[in-house]
Amino acid sequence: MTPGELRAFCLGFNAVVEDFPFNPETSVFKVLGKMFALTNLGARPLTVNLKCDPEDAVRLRADHEGLIVPGWHMNKRHWNTVTVDGGLPERLVRELVEDSYDLVVAGLPRAERLKLDRP
């Protein structure tokens, strides 16, 4: 997955915006103000911090040692840093991004979630 493909995929979800609250290099993708992905699209290797169920996070780290690690500068129980261009199947990367988005949406208040269902 290229940086452009990662950016486009993140922006393809409903109600997502790209923000730069930390510095001009760090893209933060948010749904209704809540972060679900954080990356430096110009970095090599390309990595992205993604929210993850804590049990899944541990399993993924064990299954993909070195490519999925505890979230850098994040709550390591709930976030993983995923190396996007380091040998993981693109399908898995897409699933992890989508899971992160879904976890954040699930944590939104009901009224906010309902806004996402409207066309």
TrEMBL record:
The keyword DNA-binding is annotated on this UniProt entry? yes
Annotated GO molecular function terms are: DNA binding
A family per Pfam: YjbR
List the SUPFAM superfamilies.
Answer: YjbR-like
Q: Which keywords does the record carry?
A: DNA-binding
Q: Which InterPro entries match?
A: YjbR (IPR007351), YjbR-like_sf (IPR038056), YjbR/MT2646/Rv2570-like (IPR058532)
Record-linked PANTHER family: CYTOPLASMIC PROTEIN, CYTOPLASMIC PROTEIN-RELATED
User: What is this protein called in UniProt?
Assistant: DNA-binding protein
Q: What is the lineage of its organism?
A: Bacteria, Bacillati, Actinomycetota, Actinomycetes, Kitasatosporales
